[in-house]
Amino acid sequence: MHRLLVLYNEPKDPAHFKKYYVETHVPLAHKLPGAKNPRYSFDVKPLGPGKGYFCIFEADFDSEAALMSALGSNEGKAVAGDVPNYASGGVTMVHFPVK
Predict the structure, then answer these.
(1) Which pTM does this prediction carry?
(2) DSSP codes, 55-97
(3) Are the C-beta atoms of 79 and 29 separated by less than 8 Å?
(4) N or C: which end of the chain has fewer CB within 10 A?
């Protein structure tokens, strides 16, 4: 299993982010080929000092190759191209094997 984790910083317009993300971006992300259990949360809190993140998204894939294939697909390109429409605070994407 391989996981994609997307970490969003505080945007300039939180209300726009939430509305656009839920109504437009999440439906696109759910179309990523091979994505299993896609999920997100706005209720992200740090365990210690620090600002944390505004939002997180994660989805699992059968393998790293499956994730990379999904990101390179037309659906993956549509998802990546949509990010500037709402993520004005910046975004970090990481991936890793899940044991």
Answers:
(1) 0.92
(2) EEEEEEESSHHHHHHHHHSHHHHHHHHHGGGT-TT-EEEEEEE
(3) yes
(4) C
Where do the structural domains in the chain lie, given as residue ranges? 2-97
* Residue type for position 47: L
Which of 16, 85, 11, 1 minimizes the C-alpha distance to 55? 11
Q: Which two tokens stand for residue 65?
A: 């190759």
Query: pLDDT per residue over 43-91, tens digit each?
Result: 898 888 888 899 999 999 999 999 999 999 999 999 999 999 999 999 9
Q: How many H-runs (helices) and E-runs (strands) does the chain carry?
A: 4, 4
Phi, psi (deg, nearest 5) at residue 34:
85, 0
